[in-house]
Here is the input.
Amino acid sequence: MIILQMNAPMRSQGYKYYPDVQKIILSKCAPCHHTDGAAPFVLDNYDAVSKRALMINKVIQDGYMPPWFADTAFRHFNNEIVLTLAEKNILSEWIISGKKKGKAKRAIPFQLKSSARDSADLVFELNETYHIPGDNKEHYKIFIIPTHLSDPAYLNGIEFVPGNKKLAHHARIMIDTTGLLRADDGLEVGDDSEFMRKKVKLYDPFYHGWVPGNNGVFFPGGITKKLPANTDLVINIHYAASPIDQEDRSAVKFYSSKIPTERRVQTMILDENWVVNQPFEIPEDTLIKFYMRSPPVPYDLSLINVLPHMHLLGQSFKSYAISPDGDMIPLIMIDRWNFNWQYTYEFSKFIHIPKGSFIYTEAEYNNLSSNPINQNQPPKKITYGWGTKDEMLNVIFQYVPYRPLDEFQLIQFQK
Here is the structure.
């Protein structure tokens, strides 16, 4: 009780929605639970929150919500959504004491951090509506969208907008500048498709990634990402299984910089090829850890964000750098991997990675029959693949070449 009182002293009159609860809800719940958001219902006003108060109390006490999995003791992030003990106590006390409304001194409507959300310069939809078959099977589709840009665009933000929020599970956007993949529009990943067979060298094999809750990626002021002229967007969308026919017309929004910038975002992808304890195979009835090491970093980098990626058997993930002086630089640690929530984690400050450093990743996979989300019962050997029942090990960093004092700058994202 002493600890609870120190973190959230109780008041005799109890907490009220205005002003105590609203600010917590708007900052920690509404980013997903808003109109047209990733969550299935809205939590941005008193009536909606009061209606689901008992459920809210349970999921926050169980740690199920908000869905944040990176260890904040290992590394803090700019976009982390974590309830403090004090905030949990305020919400619980408010609910238990009768959900008093209070009076709002002034209206505080929920607003996404991205003030540019309604002013995308470039919007590209799928070429035509995709008809998702109601065959109770997952589908991994490849869509090719020509941009027909006559000049390069320099972006400070990228957002994937799912057209079918119930079935679109995640998406990966790649960049092709050859024009050779256009005939592959609408093909299924895993078929004997042109996309897999031609093996065209992509300009960027991981330009942007989306999962529910990933509300777009924006870059710090003065930094942009190049979208080349005549780019074709290569979009891989994973659709969940459905018993009935449905439709999707997803889109990609690009936000161009309004001012000239000198620094360009670049991408570093570390994948299964960098695993040191090969082969990347997960035997049946096995709990196994893979260790991945990058080549030496060729020049000083300033990391902006990181996106880890595994599939259903992933259990834990840890990535860090070791500098030439032997210093350990923590990057991200996730003790409880969750396939359904894979964020782009934005660093609070630029992370300086000195030239000659190595980036290490440790990833554990659970292929035991006791794993409740193991899709194979009895378990079987799993290897690399794009399908949910296959496995992957990726860590994607976006960065700019280092400039002196970068590591001391708080990153102000253009939102």
Q: What stands out?
A: The first strand starts at residue 122 and ends at 125. The two ends are 40 Å apart (CA to CA). The CA atoms of residues 136 and 365 lie 27 Å apart. Residues 1-12 have pLDDT under 50 and may be disordered.
